[in-house]
Design a protein that fits this description.
- The structure is a single chain.
- This protein is mainly beta and 342 residues long.
- The protein is built from 4 helices and 21 strands.
- It has helices at 2-9, 11-38, 119-124, 280-286; strands at residues 53-54, 58-59, 67-71, 82-88, 101-111, 133-140, 143-148, 153-154, 160-161, 172-174, 181-187, 199-208, 218-226, 235-239, 254-261, 264-272, 276-278, 292-293, 299-307, 313-320, 335-341.
- Strands 2, 3, 5, 9, 10, 12 and 13 form a 7-stranded mixed β-sheet that branches. Strands 1, 4, 6, 7, 8 and 11 form a 6-stranded antiparallel β-sheet that branches. A 4-stranded antiparallel β-sheet has the order 14-15-20-17.
């Protein structure tokens, strides 16, 4: 009874003590759950936003820089150069975007530095550059055929969508349950393959309708240029992304690296295996064997047999296997190619 009397005459003090205990519990719980949430790590390869991918395109809104597709030194194209652009609903680890979605593809002719050709400039061009084209090339069982949709779209200075035979925009579909890879061919003017070409092609894959809102349109700009006049027999490797300062590899979701040459031999490719890995599709294309460890920690090397008489250019894609390392730079300490003749 004495306890109840104490509580009755000191009820304010009791209320304050109980309230303090409750608040302490809430704060402790919030701090605990907050710490747990902060420690969660989201795998980059599983982010939905990078499951709409391409070999030459990146998310719209990122800085679009011309991608150089070089002809090796000492070679001269005799036919319209062709660059295949891939559009996929999965990443290099095979993670598929788990929702159905559709997209359209549009393209236009631009200056080789990536800037638009204005209406006045286009009107002033006496001989229109009509050899720049884009086509969707159908394929069966992953093998390309000679079948084009509505032939080839001749590009102008304004965006045009790829159309079917009745002039309707083609809608490309990706199912969340299937890994899908669409192939598009971009054609260039053989007479414009010079050291500083006049034109390039901007291409964009544009999402149509509802898809959950967690993937973005992707775009890219390519130009094909000729190297120097040297006839040196070799192969070389170069980064295909914008490497100008202050750009770093960590600024990109993946790294595009090109091998090109004009002779036969082997290329030794060394890279930071603790940071990146080569796209699995590229392993199939080049029939690559598993890379081997080097004497230097965190580096692996693989050897690629090359023959320019068969193929004189390979585009490789490296994807991050962990959060991008901001200390890396575009140099030989990241990815390096060394040629050895036979």
């Amino acid at each position: 009874m004495k306890l109840f009397k104490v509580i009755r005459y000191n009820w304010i003090m009791v209320w304050l003590v109980v309230t303090a205990i409750i608040l302490t519990s809430v704060v402790s719980y919030a701090a605990y759950t907050g710490t747990t949430t902060a420690k969660r790590v989201v795998s980059l390869s599983n982010r939905d936003s990078i499951l709409f991918t391409s070999n030459y395109m990146k998310r719209v809104g990122t800085d679009i820089q011309p991608i150089l597709v070089n002809y090796p030194e000492g070679t001269t194209p005799t036919a319209s150069p062709v660059v295949i652009v891939e559009v996929r609903n999965y990443d290099s680890s095979g993670n598929v975007y788990d929702k159905n979605f559709q997209f359209k593809v549009k393209a236009r002719l631009v200056h080789s530095n990536g800037t638009d050709i204005t209406s006045d400039e286009w009107t002033a061009i006496s001989s229109k550059p009509d050899n720049y084209k884009v086509a969707y090339k159908t394929y069966s069982a992953n093998n390309l055929t000679d079948s084009y949709s509505n032939n080839k779209l001749t590009l102008t200075n304004i965006d045009q969508y790829l159309c079917n035979d009745v002039n309707e925009d083609i809608i490309f579909s990706c199912l969340g349950s299937d890994k899908t890879n669409y192939l598009f061919e971009t054609f260039y003017d053989v007479n414009d393959i010079i050291t500083t070409p006049t034109y390039g092609i901007r291409i964009e894959a544009e999402i149509v309708g509802s898809h959950g809102g967690d993937i973005d349109d992707i775009w890219g700009m390519m130009k094909v240029m000729k190297g120097g006049t040297s006839t040196k027999s070799t192969w070389e490797g170069k980064y295909m992304d914008d490497t100008s300062s202050p750009k770093k590899p960590a600024d990109y979701d993946g790294i595009n690296f090109q091998l090109s040459g004009n002779t036969k031999g082997k290329v030794k490719l060394t890279y930071r295996c603790d940071c990146v890995e080569i796209d699995k599709d590229d392993y199939k294309t080049l029939n690559l064997t598993d890379p081997v460890d080097t004497s230097v920690t965190n580096y692996k090397t693989l050897t690629i047999a090359v023959n320019a008489e068969t193929t004189n250019m390979y585009d490789l894609r490296f994807y991050w296997i962990k959060a991008p390392d901001t200390s890396l730079a575009f140099n030989d300490n990241f990815i390096k190619a060394v040629f050895r003749s036979e």
